[in-house]
């Protein structure tokens, strides 16, 4: 069944918002349970489409899963069904999301073989997997790709640690290589490693399972292989992308919102980047208070030139919040150049914002200039489909600020990353309804 959101915009929201656990961390640490035959308990798992699908795939793989409470699961990977891994069912199920790619590293590390169909995820431009496979090959694995079956396999007689310099700081690639290397023989050094909080959390969890990893949080990881890993307990951080989305929503709708328990120390430059758009953000212990603001003014650079916000590997600004920055800028005072460097098809949704009356010039697939309207002319309500997860939430924010009723279809693309977003926004006073179409 396809669902649509009906949104009556123009309401001011107010209240406390509790962020969900981080989707991209959950996908990594859930895959890591494959590294041990012992129970691993993970708390604060967001119960969103992508994560639930991964859990379902692990269950079919033979992992015993107990749900202790909402978002709190224990996984035990004593036996793995390699027949299923090579089956047609897996070729179909495994292709549904991006996160499944990260079962390869742990399977290769522990069993010396792993299989995966070409993974799904957002259609936001080319999404290469070269870094993953080059990393596995560096450790001694043989990589095969059957083009007609769209199926990858990695097998090794043994994995041997080595020094490697990654071609790019791929997030899921780094996670995959770490998970293979923790059980490889000897020392592995990964330079140009991604170091997002997702990766730091994965490393911390692996260390509590007995792995030996140094350099956590930096782009040089040194791993001493161990022969086996133990069980553990781990809690997923709040989702920094959801937190950024709510900052954007508060600013656009001139609302006063407190985002609870944000884990400030793991937000990097996200709060400061929104502040550069003139949005006031206050720290209150571990909560984030966003006061209601009639207007917000984009800062210029020191030399007076137009501000540019671009994405970069961590600790740079995350590409997953670029669409939100863009939509928020449409009602700021001033102009902004958005430069989405990593993905080439993530800005096309600006067409919809232009339909709603936003002043945006798409310069090329990577850059858009936004001329803010200073909340003087509201966006117009419209009907639209959500193209990808972050454009989806950006359009939802636009619809919440627009006068009148908007419809957003294809909201599966929002549900896969935001848990019950309609219910949680209604609690803040939003007029949003989920309708079956
Ligand atoms: C499930 C998951 O965790 N998904 C996240 C993960 O995807 P994922 O791990 O798939 O993304 P990668 O980090 O591999 O790369 C994303 C894109 O950026 C390009 N690239 C990457 C690194 C680099 O230094 N330069 C560069 O240009 C790649 O070529 C690719 O086109 O990281 C992305 C980048 O933060 C996020 O958007 C995704 O939400
Ligand atoms: C692009 C994203 O997700 P995925 O990598 O799962 O497609 C995202 O979370 O913004």
TrEMBL record:
Q: Which residues bind UDP-N-acetyl-alpha-D-glucosamine?
A: 98, 320, 342
Q: Which residues are named in the active-site annotation?
A: 122
**All residue ranges annotated as the Enolpyruvate transferase domain in the record:** 8-421
A cellular component term from Gene Ontology for this protein is:
cytoplasm
Family matches, as SUPFAM superfamilies? EPT/RTPC-like
Q: Where in the cell is it found?
A: Cytoplasm
- Known catalytic reactions: phosphoenolpyruvate + UDP-N-acetyl-alpha-D-glucosamine = UDP-N-acetyl-3-O-(1-carboxyvinyl)-alpha-D-glucosamine + phosphate
UniProt EC number: 2.5.1.7
Record's InterPro entries?
Answer: Enolpyruvate_Tfrase_dom (IPR001986), Enolpyruvate_Tfrase_sf (IPR036968), MurA_subfamily (IPR050068), RNA3'P_cycl/enolpyr_Trfase_a/b (IPR013792), UDP_GlcNAc_COvinyl_MurA (IPR005750)
- Sites where the protein binds phosphoenolpyruvate: 23-24
Recorded metabolic or biological pathway in which this protein acts? Cell wall biogenesis; peptidoglycan biosynthesis
Q: Does this UniProt record's set of keywords contain Transferase?
A: yes
The UniProt entry's sequence similarity note says: Belongs to the EPSP synthase family. MurA subfamily.
Q: Do you know which HAMAP family this protein is assigned to?
A: MurA
Q: What is this protein called?
A: UDP-N-acetylglucosamine 1-carboxyvinyltransferase
Q: Which organism is it from?
A: Apibacter muscae
Species lineage, top-down? Bacteria, Pseudomonadati, Bacteroidota, Flavobacteriia, Flavobacteriales
